[in-house]
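F.,

This is the one I mentioned.
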Protein backbone atom coordinates (compact mmCIF):
# COMPACT_ATOMS: atom_id res chain seq x y z
CA UNK A 1 0.00 0.00 0.00
CA UNK A 2 1.22 3.51 -0.84
CA UNK A 3 2.59 5.56 2.04
CA UNK A 4 2.98 9.28 2.55
CA UNK A 5 6.21 10.12 4.43
CA UNK A 6 5.98 12.93 6.95
CA UNK A 7 9.65 13.86 6.56
CA UNK A 8 9.74 14.48 10.33
CA UNK A 9 12.99 13.05 11.73
CA UNK A 10 12.31 9.83 13.62
CA UNK A 11 8.55 9.65 13.00
CA UNK A 12 8.44 7.69 9.74
CA UNK A 13 10.72 5.12 11.34
CA UNK A 14 7.94 4.39 13.85
CA UNK A 15 5.16 3.95 11.27
CA UNK A 16 6.65 1.85 8.47
CA UNK A 17 7.75 4.79 6.39
CA UNK A 18 4.74 7.10 6.65
CA UNK A 19 0.95 7.37 6.80
CA UNK A 20 -1.21 5.22 4.54
CA UNK A 21 -2.25 7.31 1.55
CA UNK A 22 -5.67 8.85 2.15
CA UNK A 23 -5.66 8.19 5.91
CA UNK A 24 -6.85 10.64 8.56
CA UNK A 25 -4.46 10.96 11.51
CA UNK A 26 -5.31 12.58 14.85
CA UNK A 27 -2.43 14.41 16.55
CA UNK A 28 -3.46 15.21 20.10
CA UNK A 29 -1.87 16.62 23.22
CA UNK A 30 -1.98 19.36 25.81
CA UNK A 31 -1.11 23.00 25.33
CA UNK A 32 2.49 23.61 24.29
CA UNK A 33 3.21 20.08 23.09
CA UNK A 34 3.88 21.15 19.49
CA UNK A 35 0.79 19.90 17.66
CA UNK A 36 0.70 22.91 15.32
CA UNK A 37 4.45 22.63 14.72
CA UNK A 38 4.14 18.94 13.77
CA UNK A 39 1.16 19.62 11.48
CA UNK A 40 2.90 22.55 9.77
CA UNK A 41 6.09 20.51 9.40
CA UNK A 42 4.07 17.79 7.68
CA UNK A 43 2.64 20.28 5.16
CA UNK A 44 5.95 22.08 4.67
CA UNK A 45 7.93 18.87 4.14
CA UNK A 46 5.35 17.73 1.62
CA UNK A 47 6.06 20.82 -0.49
CA UNK A 48 9.80 21.19 0.15
CA UNK A 49 10.88 17.54 0.08
CA UNK A 50 8.28 15.74 -2.02
CA UNK A 51 6.69 18.39 -4.24
CA UNK A 52 3.23 17.56 -2.89
CA UNK A 53 0.67 20.37 -2.59
CA UNK A 54 -0.88 20.79 0.86
CA UNK A 55 -3.59 22.88 2.50
CA UNK A 56 -3.49 24.04 6.11
CA UNK A 57 -6.98 24.77 7.50
CA UNK A 58 -6.75 26.81 10.68
CA UNK A 59 -9.69 27.60 12.93
CA UNK A 60 -7.74 29.62 15.46
CA UNK A 61 -4.78 31.46 13.93
CA UNK A 62 -4.58 33.42 10.69
CA UNK A 63 -1.90 32.91 8.06
CA UNK A 64 0.20 35.83 9.32
CA UNK A 65 0.34 34.49 12.88
CA UNK A 66 1.22 31.04 11.58
CA UNK A 67 4.12 32.49 9.54
CA UNK A 68 5.39 34.41 12.57
CA UNK A 69 5.18 31.35 14.81
CA UNK A 70 7.15 29.23 12.33
CA UNK A 71 9.75 31.89 11.47
CA UNK A 72 12.28 30.50 13.98
CA UNK A 73 12.44 27.25 11.97
CA UNK A 74 13.39 29.14 8.78
CA UNK A 75 10.55 27.48 6.87
CA UNK A 76 9.83 29.61 3.83
CA UNK A 77 6.08 29.11 3.75
CA UNK A 78 5.63 32.20 1.57
CA UNK A 79 7.78 30.74 -1.22
CA UNK A 80 5.75 27.55 -1.42
CA UNK A 81 2.50 29.46 -1.15
CA UNK A 82 3.57 31.52 -4.16
CA UNK A 83 4.47 28.28 -5.97
CA UNK A 84 0.93 26.99 -5.25
CA UNK A 85 2.29 24.12 -3.13
CA UNK A 86 1.00 25.43 0.20
CA UNK A 87 -2.27 27.18 0.98
CA UNK A 88 -3.31 28.45 4.41
CA UNK A 89 -7.03 28.99 4.91
CA UNK A 90 -8.64 30.50 7.99
CA UNK A 91 -12.17 29.35 8.82
CA UNK A 92 -14.20 32.17 10.33
CA UNK A 93 -16.10 31.85 13.60
CA UNK A 94 -19.42 30.06 13.19
CA UNK A 95 -22.33 30.69 15.55
CA UNK A 96 -24.00 27.49 16.87
CA UNK A 97 -27.37 28.51 15.40
CA UNK A 98 -25.86 28.73 11.92
CA UNK A 99 -23.48 25.81 12.25
CA UNK A 100 -25.27 23.20 10.07
CA UNK A 101 -25.48 25.53 7.07
CA UNK A 102 -22.05 27.11 7.47
CA UNK A 103 -20.40 23.74 8.07
CA UNK A 104 -21.59 22.43 4.69
CA UNK A 105 -20.48 25.64 2.99
CA UNK A 106 -17.00 25.43 4.52
CA UNK A 107 -16.63 21.76 3.53
CA UNK A 108 -17.60 22.60 -0.05
CA UNK A 109 -15.07 25.46 -0.04
CA UNK A 110 -12.31 23.16 1.23
CA UNK A 111 -13.20 20.52 -1.38
CA UNK A 112 -12.96 23.13 -4.10
CA UNK A 113 -9.50 24.21 -2.88
CA UNK A 114 -8.33 20.58 -2.74
CA UNK A 115 -9.49 19.94 -6.31
CA UNK A 116 -8.05 23.20 -7.64
CA UNK A 117 -4.61 22.55 -6.09
CA UNK A 118 -4.74 18.78 -6.53
CA UNK A 119 -3.73 18.75 -2.86
CA UNK A 120 -2.25 15.55 -1.46
CA UNK A 121 -1.91 16.71 2.15
CA UNK A 122 -4.39 18.44 4.41
CA UNK A 123 -4.36 19.72 8.00
CA UNK A 124 -7.39 20.58 10.14
CA UNK A 125 -6.20 22.63 13.14
CA UNK A 126 -8.05 22.07 15.36
CA UNK A 127 -11.05 19.86 15.98
CA UNK A 128 -11.15 21.34 19.49
CA UNK A 129 -11.92 24.83 18.20
CA UNK A 130 -14.30 23.25 15.68
CA UNK A 131 -16.18 21.51 18.49
CA UNK A 132 -16.44 24.64 20.62
CA UNK A 133 -18.65 26.24 17.97
CA UNK A 134 -21.32 23.58 18.27
CA UNK A 135 -24.33 23.63 20.52
CA UNK A 136 -24.39 20.10 21.93
CA UNK A 137 -22.32 16.96 22.41
CA UNK A 138 -24.49 15.04 19.94
CA UNK A 139 -23.88 17.74 17.31
CA UNK A 140 -20.15 17.56 17.99
CA UNK A 141 -20.10 13.80 17.47
CA UNK A 142 -22.26 13.90 14.33
CA UNK A 143 -20.26 16.74 12.78
CA UNK A 144 -16.89 15.09 13.49
CA UNK A 145 -18.09 11.82 11.92
CA UNK A 146 -19.39 13.80 8.94
CA UNK A 147 -16.06 15.63 8.66
CA UNK A 148 -14.19 12.30 8.63
CA UNK A 149 -16.41 11.02 5.80
CA UNK A 150 -15.82 14.17 3.77
CA UNK A 151 -12.04 13.94 4.31
CA UNK A 152 -12.08 10.37 2.95
CA UNK A 153 -13.84 11.56 -0.20
CA UNK A 154 -11.15 14.21 -0.74
CA UNK A 155 -8.51 11.43 -0.82
CA UNK A 156 -5.99 13.66 0.94
CA UNK A 157 -3.75 12.30 3.65
CA UNK A 158 -4.94 14.39 6.58
CA UNK A 159 -3.76 15.42 10.02
CA UNK A 160 -6.40 16.64 12.48
CA UNK A 161 -5.18 18.21 15.73
CA UNK A 162 -6.98 18.10 19.06
CA UNK A 163 -6.08 19.73 22.35
CA UNK A 164 -6.42 17.61 25.48
CA UNK A 165 -5.89 18.50 29.13
CA UNK A 166 -2.47 16.83 28.85
CA UNK A 167 -3.07 13.69 30.90
CA UNK A 168 -1.42 10.38 30.05
CA UNK A 169 -4.66 8.61 29.14
CA UNK A 170 -6.33 11.47 27.27
CA UNK A 171 -6.30 10.99 23.51
CA UNK A 172 -8.89 13.55 22.35
CA UNK A 173 -11.05 16.39 23.63
CA UNK A 174 -14.52 15.05 22.92
CA UNK A 175 -13.95 11.30 23.22
CA UNK A 176 -14.84 10.59 19.59
CA UNK A 177 -11.93 11.82 17.48
CA UNK A 178 -9.70 8.84 18.22
CA UNK A 179 -12.39 6.46 16.95
CA UNK A 180 -13.03 8.19 13.62
CA UNK A 181 -9.31 8.63 12.86
CA UNK A 182 -7.22 5.97 11.13
CA UNK A 183 -4.26 6.79 13.34
CA UNK A 184 -3.61 8.54 16.64
CA UNK A 185 -0.32 10.20 17.65
CA UNK A 186 -0.20 11.64 21.17
CA UNK A 187 2.26 14.32 22.30
CA UNK A 188 3.11 14.84 25.97
CA UNK A 189 4.93 17.71 27.66
CA UNK A 190 5.74 17.18 31.31
CA UNK A 191 8.67 19.57 31.90
CA UNK A 192 11.42 19.03 31.16
CA UNK A 193 10.35 15.90 29.28
CA UNK A 194 8.61 15.69 25.90
CA UNK A 195 7.33 12.34 24.68
CA UNK A 196 5.47 10.92 21.66
CA UNK A 197 3.31 7.80 21.52
CA UNK A 198 1.72 6.22 18.43
CA UNK A 199 -1.57 5.08 19.97
CA UNK A 200 -2.88 3.43 16.79
CA UNK A 201 -2.17 3.35 13.06
CA UNK A 202 -4.48 1.23 10.90
CA UNK A 203 -2.81 -0.99 8.35
CA UNK A 204 0.57 -0.37 9.95
CA UNK A 205 2.83 -2.38 12.21
CA UNK A 206 3.65 0.68 14.26
CA UNK A 207 6.06 1.10 17.14
CA UNK A 208 4.35 0.63 20.52
CA UNK A 209 6.86 2.41 22.76
CA UNK A 210 6.92 5.99 24.03
CA UNK A 211 9.78 8.05 22.60
CA UNK A 212 11.35 11.38 23.56
CA UNK A 213 11.29 14.29 21.13
CA UNK A 214 12.66 17.80 21.02
CA UNK A 215 11.52 21.00 19.34
CA UNK A 216 14.76 22.22 17.80
CA UNK A 217 15.84 24.75 15.17
CA UNK A 218 14.39 22.56 12.39
CA UNK A 219 11.14 21.68 14.13
CA UNK A 220 10.19 18.43 15.85
CA UNK A 221 12.74 15.63 15.97
CA UNK A 222 11.90 12.26 17.54
CA UNK A 223 14.52 9.99 19.05
CA UNK A 224 13.28 6.61 17.81
CA UNK A 225 16.15 4.79 19.52
CA UNK A 226 15.38 5.90 23.06
CA UNK A 227 12.34 5.04 25.17
CA UNK A 228 10.36 6.88 27.85
CA UNK A 229 8.71 4.72 30.49
CA UNK A 230 4.91 4.89 30.32
CA UNK A 231 4.80 4.96 34.12
CA UNK A 232 6.86 8.16 34.14
CA UNK A 233 4.07 10.10 32.39
CA UNK A 234 1.65 11.78 34.76
CA UNK A 235 -1.98 10.82 34.71
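My design for it:
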Amino acid sequence: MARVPTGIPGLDELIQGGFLEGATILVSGGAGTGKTILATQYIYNGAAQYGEPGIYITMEEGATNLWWNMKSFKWNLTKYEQDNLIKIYKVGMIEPAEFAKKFSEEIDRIKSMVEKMDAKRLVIDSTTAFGMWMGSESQIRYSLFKLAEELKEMKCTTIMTAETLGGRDQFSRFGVEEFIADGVIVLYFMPPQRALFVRKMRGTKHDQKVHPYVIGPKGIEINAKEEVLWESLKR
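The chain has a mean pLDDT of 88.

Talk soon.
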